[in-house]
Amino acid sequence: MRVVRSVVGVLLALIGLLVGLAGAAAAFWLIGPDDTVKSGDQHLTSKGLAIASSPELLDRHGPVLHVEAHSTNGKPVFVGVARDFDVASYLKGFAHTSLVQVQYPIALTTQEQKGAAGPLAAPDTLDWWVAKANGAGTQSIAWPITDGPYDVVVMTADGKTAPDVQVNLGIEIPHAFLAALGVLLAGLVLLAVGILLILVRRRRPSAPQQVFTAPGVPAQQQQPMRRVAAVGVVVALVSSCSAIPERDTVASLTRPAISNETAAAVVKHYKEVNNTANHGRDDKLIATIEGGTVVRESQAGYAISRTLDKAGKDLIKPFTYTKPVVGAPEYGTYPMHFVVSAGISDTKAYRYLGVWERATAGSPWMLTFAAALPAAAKVPDITGLRTVTNAGAKRLAAAPQAAAAALAEYLTAGAKSPRAASFAPNANVTKVLASAADWRSTAAKQPKIYQNVTEDFSIDTPPTAFVTKSGAALVFATVTEDFKLENGAGYSFNWSSGDPLGFSPATVKYQGGLTRTTLHDAVLLVPAKGAGKITVLSFESQLIDAGGY
Fold first, then answer.
1. Using one digit for the tens of pLDDT, what is the confidence trace for 363-418?
2. Closest CA to 99 of 154, 17, 139
3. How far is the C-alpha of 449 from the C-alpha of 81, rounded, in Å?
């Protein structure tokens, strides 16, 4: 049996040598005392403006991700981690480089993505990074990898120039160094056992000994097998010190559109720029903070005031928002919105309600809807707002789009419209309906002068809507009113007074008729089914054009 023992010894020695060498290499070359597997410095460049990993590269969570980067041309560098949908929106349409494979410890594989040359918004100015570092010299982050699709981005800090960087990626796995040392120790034990089996001759016992054997296995082979089993137990115990990271289970992520702190900064910036733009009636400046129909309304107001108040004596007074409350729904895509409800410093009669929108991850927040509500209006709690899902819309008295369309039909047809029964109108709605009725009545009484008068109301842009804690929905809709007066034969008309003079001087006469376009900002409170009528909380109007033909 000495031959068998020698063969087993050689095998154990070889296995022990290989295991020991693997443990030593892992402990002292691949991992190190910091428990981190590193790629080593890799030179990366891009024909675009950023280098971004794909979410598949971070498909396990638990370990700590380390990223170090420094520019080879001396320019400040940015390193960040963010949710994949934020990064995808930020880089969409722009040329960049995708990091598609990491082979530790020496190889990174990249792929160029074609697109526009930029520039991109400076990354450090954006609020959706979960970890970031920015500046000159070597920049580094350490981020515990979280379940879900996340991306790593390395780029030049200004967002305008192509990155040329040295990057070192690392994955820190708890107790990995200890586990590697355990493997090394196990290898040494196996090697020692193998050498002993080869060199040490077995002595025959002077007296018979009782030996317990496994069924079907010669007693002479039991001792080596028990030693191998013991070594296996040691290896198993040591290996358990370093848990294998779990695979991700979260396929998509969401987050609040904005934090309260960032929202406060956005509102403060808006107020400061808005006050400056109002003072100078500056169309270009106001367009840097407002979008959608709101900027058209502001610019139209400036045009009217430049005509009717050339001396600048009736400028909008500077104001501030008091005690703002933020409603920020969860999103997993763009565009995103948040709502602010606040007091207005120069009046106690009204309360401000505004909606901000960010079209893409790299876009600034822009005010896209604004209304002043009477202080007595019962505005629901906007904290905890949720976006309206298809299932949620079915639980409302009317889906947001349907509610807005119904309001337009109601305004077009007048107080006797079948839609009127669905609404609890406010004073401004009643005023608009009365004005439209007066025009129709005048035209009917003087058909030779007024051949026809029409006022059509429509919803040109889908409304923005949210579900509140109470289950009711806040709907922010802009209604476009197109007014058209057709002259009787032989008559001509002109706009002679009021806001239309901001677009059509009194000296201009029209042979065919007059036209006027007004935007009405409506805030609707849509209750749950069977809980009452749709309440018009606010209905504010702004003339944006007037003329004729």
1. 999 999 999 998 888 889 999 999 999 999 999 999 999 999 999 999 999 999 99
2. 154
3. 69
CA distance linking residue 132 with residue 153, whole number of Å: 9
**What torsion, rounded to 10 degrees, do the Cα atoms 51, 55, 60, 64 define?**
30
pLDDT tens per residue across span 21-51: 877 776 666 676 777 777 788 999 999 999 9
- For 375-409, list the strands marked E by DSSP: 386-387
In angstroms, rounded to a whole number, what is the distance separating the alpha carbons of residues 129 and 50? Answer: 15
Are the CB atoms for 118 and 49 separated by under 8 Å?
yes
d(CA 82, CA 132): 9
Asked if 526 and 398 touch (Cβ cutoff 8 Å), the reply is: yes
Q: In angstroms, rounded to a whole number, what is the distance separating the alpha carbons of residues 155 and 166?
A: 11
Q: Residue 464 in 3-state DSSP?
A: strand
Amino acid at 120: L
CB 391 within 8 A of CB 543: no
Count H helices and E strands in the chain, helices first: 10, 26
Measured between alpha carbons, how far is 357 from 349 in angstroms, rounded to an integer? 27
What is the rounded (10 degree) CA torsion for 380, 382, 384, 385?
A: 100
By the 8 A CB rule, do 48 and 97 touch?
yes
Q: Is 25 left (phi over 0), alpha (psi -120 to 50) or beta?
A: alpha
Average pLDDT score over residue span 334-349? 93
Q: Nearest-CA neighbor of 97 among 78, 110, 115?
A: 110
| Per-residue tokens: 518 | 């007004």
Q: What is the mean pLDDT of the chain?
A: 88
How far does the chain reach from its first CA to its final CA, in angstroms?
115
Looking up tokens 């309304």 gives 297
Q: Treating both helix axes as pointing N-terminal to C-terminal, what angle do 2-25 and 222-239 enclose, rounded to 10 degrees?
A: 10
DSSP state, 396? B
